[in-house]
Design a protein that fits this description.
This protein is 24% helix and 22% strand. It is an alpha+beta fold and 460 residues long.
Amino acid sequence: MTSTFEALLPTTERSLLHRVARAQNEGRAPSFVGAVARGGAMVWSGSRTCVDGHAPDADTQYRIGSITKVFTAVLVLRLRDEGLIGLDDPLEKHLPGTGVGEVTIAQLLGHTAGLAAETPAPWWERTPGTTRPELSDVLGETPSLHPTGRSFHYSNPGYTLLGSLVEAVRGVSWEEALRTEILEPLGMDRTTGDPVAPHAGGWAVHPWADVMLPEPSEDLGVMAPAGQLWSTAEDLCRFGAFLAEGDERVLSAATVAEMRVPASPPAAGDAQMGYGLGLQLAHGESGTLIGHGGSLPGFVAGLWVDVSEGLVGVALANATSGPQPGVVAAELVRIVAEAEPRLPEPWRPLPSSEVDHELLALTGPWYWGTYSFCLRLGAERGVVLEPLRGAGRSARFRALPDGGWMGLDGYYAGETLRVVRRPDGGVSHLDLASFVFTREPYEPGGAVPGGVDEKGWRGL
């Protein structure tokens, strides 16, 4: 993320602090920390606490619960990018003997494997991992509840399987892979499996009285990849910046963009929420936020990223229920986006090395039947096809080594656009997934499927 400035305006900072203060007060949280990143770095943090004279800061650890799943997903996608696994591979190919080996890795990442939401009793979040030392203890006798690949059903055991997959393929523990492949490259030295001071204590607040009860903090054992981690607001700002733009030391921009693509239709009754490959997707009037929420007894957490604005919002609290960190993190992003919208990058012409006069001749209007489109040049010899007026299918295309272009967006994602030439070498038309684009609508003598009426255009 790039920006010409970092500091927020005092009025913006006041609005952010007010939102955190209101969240701590209304949510009855012992403490609440919020932070915002812009331009790849944290630009604001604030907190409120019930203890006079003491307040946590952006370096105070909180347990982040299921935000851990995003880290696990990143480890899995690293394996895919290295060619060690395929997302369509059945789990059995790399992690045999689970009893659910027919599900694919992609289905586990997107929660469409049909697995149960939780482990067999007792409640795994409030009992030590030694209670269920093996995957069979996590999955139980009836691990599958729904048809595989048909619908979204959130599954904590599913991410336990993915953590074990990482260990099986890498030959090291999930914790070691996490540390060496994500935390160290991104400089997240305050994100750990066990709490490291300074850290908050977890509390349950009585629903009908202003009294508190300490919550236990258990090592989750084999369930760790689903929710073990402790982190800070500053570390999560770093991680959110990575999710926005990628980092070649961890995952490319193309792969983190792939994580943001919905893996299934939204769950019934929740059209505003979706799920990609390890990421929650929140669709609202102002666009889509990506990130994840998390909770474990004593803690709740929220991380949301607005990729278009280059903003990250983080909210952390040490209460089992009451605060709404996901809502607050999204509102921290909104406050900055509305008060200080991102400045667009300066327009610049293409580098001379990318100007190809043969390609330049292809730009301008093209017609699919009577639909009018415009083809324009993009970066790195790519092209963009978009409607000239009204709604229609638009897409970016990247250049292919052997000629033509591959679609990157929407309806034309993965489809090939190519130039078809006449015997004399001149351009006849563009072919896109069998659709013929000509320079004139229903061009006489053009390669229009079905031909063109020889009498041509006429009036009534």
